């Protein structure tokens, strides 16, 4: 039936990645072959020692030692390849970041061309002028008081507070301590509330 929507899925693995991975796989196969050979040669060296062929066993162990060194070199090469793959991936990410920064910088430059500092200062100045103008209109419409009116109001307020109010005279006789007919407050009957008509 093929692909359901007719689109081919692109692999994320690049040719560069494939080449590095193939080299790594070849080195691992070589490593495996060397490891199997080392085991065989060790067994063969034991057999030669049992048979009393010390010289041949020594030669075989030298060969084995050389192959062990090759095995260590192969480990280092695989490690280098894997590090190189990681470095390539990180460099690709860095390139995308740099490309993004470049595009962002171009956008900012275009925006700066459209709106210069002088233009922004002009707009802010016009806005402040418009706000001040609107405040003046609001004061006129609200009939707000002038500074002279406010001064007159404060003067009148001071005059009123300084006038002497007519208060009743304070009695000069001392008050009785307790009225004889007064009952304690707790036992006094509550006055009836008169309903407003």
From TrEMBL:
Pfam families: Snf7 (PF03357). GO terms for cellular component: ESCRT III complex; multivesicular body. Residues 49-91 form a coiled coil. It is found in: Endosome membrane. GO terms for biological process: late endosome to vacuole transport via multivesicular body sorting pathway; protein transport; vesicle budding from membrane. Residues 164-197 are annotated as: Disordered. Keywords: Coiled coil, Endosome, Membrane, Protein transport, Transport. Its main location: membrane. Belongs to the SNF7 family. PANTHER family: CHARGED MULTIVESICULAR BODY PROTEIN (PTHR22761), CHARGED MULTIVESICULAR BODY PROTEIN 6 (PTHR22761:SF5). This is CHMP6 protein. It comes from Odontophorus gujanensis (marbled wood quail).
